[in-house]
Amino acid sequence: MRISLQTASPPVTHLEWQRRLLEEAEEGTDHLSVVLERNDATYDDLAYERSGERAWTGGPALTLDDLWREPADVPVVSFFTGCGGMDLGFEVAGFKHLCAFEFNELFCRTLRRNRPQWQIFGPPAHLGDVSRVDEVVEALAGVVSNPFEGVFIGGPPCQPFSIASNQRFSKSGANFKRVGFDHKRNGGLLFDYIELILEFKPAVFVIENVPGLRDIDGGSQLSSAVRTLSEAGYEISQPVVLDAADFGVPQRRNRLFVIGTRLKAWIQLPPARQGHIGCGAVLPNRVPAAPNNETRKHKAGSVARYMALDYGARDHLGRVDRLDPSLPAKTVIAGGSGGGGRSHLHPEIPRTLSVRECARLQSFPDDYVFVGPTARQFTQVGNAVPPVLAAQLAGEIRDAVE
């Protein structure tokens, strides 16, 4: 007989029942998932030793529907699109999506699955590789004007920047472009993106990345990039790090943004919202009835460790943290249910989060489907810009352009 979770701390009888199942799985030959099924139960019927002691008591999390604006004839082109977090934000802000460039075929499948009307330059029909600048220029020439009276958005993959300090670019402004673009494996994608900006002269561009981009080589690389764009006639904002939690996203996530414009209007950053949203606003005590909601089948030993954790505490063996429902979640990490990464622990269920639950923390709508193996679904979600944050930035850019 299934024993349901209680709204307060679980009674001793529930924990005793739970421990008996864990012991049965550890001492026998059956996996915990089999033992649970045999007892007409699921992982969501399990509880922590201390449950129901904290909760999110505020309002609902901000959604894309809350930020929707009437469509406008302001075009946007996306580079390094990933699964489309930035693009969704610009879409809901009313921008006209012209095309996107993404070299990962799986990510392209996700984009085409959710937005079949978008023009996606990527496998299998196109490489979608921004480092092949000439091919991107040729593809874009049939899509956009030159100069382009719209917006370029792009977040070059952050991984190259983590090792770029060992492959320094020239600190000379005169040699910046030649030397920087020779280093294709170490931050070169940023400079390829800049070359495309210089070629098509969009009215506005956005560079998005991890905060570490600002510190590479003591900041000289990013400064050289900004200087080159300034010399081309762009007014450029100081690199700024925004925490998604300050903008209605139920997750702590810092992203770096650099915005440039050749328009006379100055682009304001979106104002931070009062208060934060606790992750409990989007994490109910059952997996939501939505795609990508498969949860990991933990072993009994793992669950036994997890259930002893207090809110916000870490399981050091598994390197996972129990979330506090009254606070924004810790940063969603690109990982997978089959190993090679990790997600956080649900606030009230001693298991890691599903892809869908992580997508909710990232502010993706429940009808947005991530394709591919579960591990790669986590990668897509964990690498994305929260759409709700992107929508607020897009709104400020739209106001300036119009």
Relevant terms:
402 residues; Rossmann fold; two-stranded antiparallel ribbon; alpha/beta; DNA Methylase, Chain A, domain 2
What's the structural blueprint in terms of helices and strands?
Layout: H1 12-27, H2 32-38, E1 75-79, H3 85-92, E2 96-101, H4 105-114, E3 120-121, H5 133-141, E4 151-154, H6 176-182, H7 188-200, E5 204-209, H8 220-231, E6 235-236, E7 240-243, E8 254-261, H9 300-306, E9 314-315, E10 320-321, H10 355-361, H11 374-383, H12 387-401
Parallel strand pairs: 1-2, 1-4, 2-3, 4-5
Antiparallel strand pairs: 5-8, 6-8, 7-8, 9-10
Outline the structure in words.
- The protein is of the alpha/beta class.
- 30% of the residues lie in helices and 10% in strands.
- It has 12 helices and 10 strands.
- It has helices at residues 12-27, 32-38, 85-92, 105-114, 133-141, 176-182, 188-200, 220-231, 300-306, 355-361, 374-383, 387-401, and strands spanning 75-79, 96-101, 120-121, 151-154, 204-209, 235-236, 240-243, 254-261, 314-315, 320-321.
- It is elongated.
- The termini are far apart.
Query: What is the CATH fold-level name of the largest domain?
Result: Rossmann fold
Shape estimate: elongated
The helix/strand order is HHEHEHEHEHHEHEEEHEEHHH
Helix segment tally: 12
By CATH, the architecture of the largest domain is named 3-Layer(aba) Sandwich
Distance between the termini: 62 Å
Instruction: Give unreliable regions as ranges.
Output: 160-186, 336-340
**Mean pLDDT over all positions:** 89
Helix/sheet category: alpha/beta
Number of domains: 2
Total DSSP E strands: 10
Q: Identify the CATH homologous superfamily of the largest domain.
A: Vaccinia Virus protein VP39
Largest sheet: 8 strands, mixed
* Range of strand content: 5-15%
